[in-house]
Amino acid sequence: MSLAGRHILSIDQFTRPDLEALLAVAQTLEPVARRQYRCNVLDGAVMANLFFEASTRTRISFHTAFSRLGGRVCDTTGFTFSSISKGESLEDTARVIAGYADAIVMRHPETGSVAQFAKGLRVPVINAGDGTGEHPSQALLDYYTISSEFARLGKTIDGMTIAMVGDLKHGRTIHSLCRLLRLFRNITFHFVAPPALAAPQELLDSLKTAGHHVREFDSIASGLPGADVVYATRIQRERIEGGEEMEGYSEDYRINHTAITEYAPKDIIIMHPLPRDSRPGAFDLATDLDTLPNLAIFRQADNGVTMRMAMFAMALDVHKDIDRHFHKWEGYRPRRYSDSDADFYQFD
Length: 348
Ligand code: NCD
Fold this sequence. Notes:
five-stranded parallel β-sheet, Rossmann fold, alpha/beta, single chain, four-stranded parallel β-sheet, 2 domains
């Protein structure tokens, strides 16, 4: 399938060859993400980055990705500064922005709203998260992360075991990643959450129908053994009625250094879409893991720029032209981004 001019609204629109094509383009763009080369293949193009819900890395990495390919970005954040607060319909806003920009990225708190916005538009729209629905670009960058971490370890996605921990009910990153992994073969899913935060039954059923193995656990002590990847998520308090209610989430679900040492295989990859909730009592991924090379969360966030560049290059049909627009960067560039980065994460 060609992505040229197409919206990216759900992982369900991709086949496995589509994923592999995106991965190949992302790999070509790696030297740009690593700042060895500049690329101006999107010179003259404009992207509208519309975020109606809180975001740091998704908004900035979409912006960075488009800019690193030589394009310009217009941003709008929140409802307050948008004409939607004057009663404008999504449809009217959509038609207007399509007249201004070559690509549109949108995050919105209501499930289905980005698809409603994109309906009938001839300018590609990328869903950057719609309520508890989907977050396709996150799943694609998670796929890129698992593939590159596994390449180092000599593992394959087919046949792997992944433990998913946290708010599996409201977490759209979990929903999109499960839909993506469904396209592979023979995956074992360990879902670790209290009943009130369990993954939707229809999602579990669709994984089973596709031939995967689904197991549910009520603690990480039982859910971590045998896992190649653990994917932790934040409790989505803003989507839970009563807000602060943790719905049975306790210390038993917390992934920290002790839990990883006691229950997980030595080479487990630890992922999280971020942000992690560092407030006391949140029981999110612990910071005592930060010195472990297994912790892939910052490499995962870095991969967001690479994968989003690939998405733009394909949606605007310039991916075959990329190398012609590479220019060696002669200025300063870091060999790694931080002192805490693992030794294998160096850019030469
Ligand atoms: C997630 C999101 O917004 O869905 N973050 C992200 O995009 N990287 C996860 C979250 O908010 O917990």
